[in-house]
Amino acid sequence: MLELGDRIAVTKDGVRREGVLMPSVSGTVVIKMDSGYNAGFDPERSDVELVRKGKAPMVPPPPPLLRREGLPKVSILSTGGTIASKVDYRTGAVTSQFSAEEIISSIPELLEIANYDGRVIYNILSENMKAEYWQVLARAVGSEIEKGAEGVIVTHGTDTMTYTAAALSFMIKTPVPVVLVGSQRSSDRPSSDAAMNAISAAAVATSDIAEVTVVMHGTTSDDFALVHRGTRVRKMHTSRRDAFRSINCHPIAKVSYPDREIEVLGGHRRRGEAALEVNDGLESRCALVKYFPGAKPDLFEHYINSGYRGIVLEGTGLGHVASDWIKTIKSATDAGVPVVIASQCLRGRVCDRVYDTGRDILAAGGIEGGDTLPEVALVKLMWALANTSTVEEAKGLMKVSLAGEISSSTPTTV
Amino acid sequence: MLELGDRIAVTKDGVRREGVLMPSVSGTVVIKMDSGYNAGFDPERSDVELVRKGKAPMVPPPPPLLRREGLPKVSILSTGGTIASKVDYRTGAVTSQFSAEEIISSIPELLEIANYDGRVIYNILSENMKAEYWQVLARAVGSEIEKGAEGVIVTHGTDTMTYTAAALSFMIKTPVPVVLVGSQRSSDRPSSDAAMNAISAAAVATSDIAEVTVVMHGTTSDDFALVHRGTRVRKMHTSRRDAFRSINCHPIAKVSYPDREIEVLGGHRRRGEAALEVNDGLESRCALVKYFPGAKPDLFEHYINSGYRGIVLEGTGLGHVASDWIKTIKSATDAGVPVVIASQCLRGRVCDRVYDTGRDILAAGGIEGGDTLPEVALVKLMWALANTSTVEEAKGLMKVSLAGEISSSTPTTV
After folding, report:
1. Would you name the residues of A annotated as active-site residues?
2. Which of B185, B316, B346, B354 should be substituted to probe chain A, the one whose Cβ sees the most A Cβ atoms within 10 Å?
3. Can you tell me the ipTM of this complex?
């Protein structure tokens, strides 16, 4: 019988990895490797063996959370990622580093802002994120709000955080702030962004900004964080602390640090304005296709033959693809597979009415994504196909704003 | 017998379009439609009929170019695009608007800078660009330089201009400036960027910057243009005049307007430093795949089964994909299909040594693209596979800088 803290070896696809067995609630076997990083495995597709029994956790459990009268109640949901990866690399000791208790005990300023409850939803590398996990997370967020949370913080790996933020934005109508936060450098490294991001996230979770947002460093200094709308944000740098940027709109707000003043920069939904609603349907058989010169349209056939239900096409410029793709867009549309047009420029809006190619794309059934980011259009299409009764209805949704992801005119200064 | 200026109808794939027959040298039938925009057709796959005979061109041919003693000799090669689309929309009159003569007659300041020769290489919408056209263009640029051009300007549609710039950067070693230029708004519209961009391009074509560059507006005002390295530039907005930005490096230079002062911002190859060399091989069977959460790795099988020779994988963050892709990367690599890793963040560099997923990708044979843009990595892979005798040699080239597309460390301020 394996126990947490045991050193085990997991062999999958011929590759053997050793590490210490970690807590996990998603059914995955998670090990902490000697490198300090975690790896998760499907137990049904891996061989697991005991290397040696572990010692009892070497770190004492954190003290129960202090509760202060009069502070709002915030839930911290943990999904994995760098922000939750503080650990003793040398001993490999199993600690409850994913709990709210551990995060708070390492960042005592958080206690000035709220009283917290914490839950580990799962513990995955964010590049392994997929639609099913978004659904689990959306239900968990809804359940915390039902139980009285006045704000929810979701800690998340940065690689796919903006996809998750978009998914939660479409799945949840929230009366309270739902804040995704992560860190580009873990809290046990010099110049970690974990503490400032977490404190800023807590400030937003207790604010009047009742939307799904991403809160991360605004600059490479520790001077302020930005509050990005969940459908309008993109990781624009592989490693910088200020990698997250609002695209095609201004951030909702700035949070100054360390004084935590929130300066609102744009309109937002206010606390209590919407009633809680969780619509967690997602059609995972949707694909994002990036066009490139010479790309062959038969990729669409591959997707249609594989049972895909929707495609987002990242065209060039205003949303253009080569003329020989037009017929394929029509075939996909005729087969009931909506094709949404976005632009690989990322900034600006597609406009298929200016040039002839664009008008041909529209005539073939292509749906203009406006100024929606390609990745957000993908997640929206997954949601729209699962939450409507006809494809035509889903196509209609792609043209209107459901969660601030599309606007009738894009500000020219962003 | 159809003549230029005739009104014709072209029917292709069941769609009939009318317009005025335009000059074309690529074997394509090009018509100017009533909307003012051009469409090109393969004559072997279209039905062409005469609607009515045209009048002789209503615009007199431009006067022969004045030659001024002592000015350098610059060739203007035209490939189509908005910058070459000045036309009388109302009459549909055929003018030689694609020639150097016409461009210069509408922008007289150009005559202060150089003496020009012009050639129409082809006249396509830039979204129809593909590897074969890049090869034709590279040979044409080489031939102009051989004939004594002291600088070459390529006018190009903006949608795929940066892909073409990358392709020319790898195919041509040039002793003189090779400048790509376009416009976001055609010269007969208010606030066109065509004149300033063309004048700035001419200034760079007669400068000491002997590289393949893209010269476009630096701001939304007419104050300066930026000179971007051909392997480091990306169209980052669908419609703004300052859409083109250097990524992961500073622009090579600024060109102030209207005084045309060139301020060099970074190192560059100088005039005469390299001998002319054109290596125009390109392996067009290469694909760019953008990863997204839940994406299925069987896309690789589709490409390998379709005879593709190389794949660039646009991962999340530092270059990550879900764990179930690792095995597929190994299969592709084992099948002799190199897989190059880039990041959809665009800014920053992939680094597959930090996290476990990355190390698995490297162990499976994935090749780190450093801070090369995904689109540039694709074009480079096309070139590397065609200009080496083994796949291993091509893979080796992907890790080193051939035309400034990769650096050992990325500046943190770009």
Report:
1. 82, 158-159, 235
2. B316
3. 0.85
The CATH number of the domain covering residues in A286-398: 3.40.50.40
- E-strand stretches of B374-414: none
B234 residue type, one letter: R
> What is the CATH topology of the domain spanning A7-52?
SH3 type barrels. (2.30.30)
Rounded to 5 degrees, φ, ψ at A322 are -65, 155
Contact assignment for A240 to B347 by CB distance below 8 Å: yes
Q: Where are the domains of chain A?
A: 7-52, 73-278, 286-398
Establish whether domains A7-52 and A73-278 are of one fold: no
Three-state SS at A197: helix
Contacts of B198 (CB under 8 A, 6+ apart): B83, B103, B107, B110, B153, B155, B181, B183
Q: Per-residue confidence at B376, pLDDT binned at 50, 70, 90?
A: very high
Q: Do A351 and B284 touch (CB under 8 A)?
A: no
Cis preceding-peptide flag for B63 (omega within 30 of 0): no
Q: Which of B125, B294, B347 sits opposite A130 (nearest CB)?
A: B294
- Among B258, B261, B195, residue whose Cα is nearest residue B227: B261
Rounded CA separation A33/A245 (Å): 32
pLDDT by residue (tens digit) across B331-342?
999 999 999 999
Q: Which helix (H) or strand (E) holds A224?
A: strand A224-229
- Torsion angle of C-alpha atoms A46, A47, A51, A53, degrees rounded to 10: 80
Helix axis angle, A326-334 relative to A298-305, nearest 10°? 20
Spatial CA neighbour of B292 closest among B322, B318, B248: B322
Residue among A137, A292, A331, A351 with most chain B CBs within 10 A, to mutate: A292
Look at A127 and B357 and tell me if their CB atoms are within 8 Å.
yes
Q: Identify the CATH number of the domain defined by range B73-278.
A: 3.40.50.1170
pLDDT of B59 > 70? The answer is: no
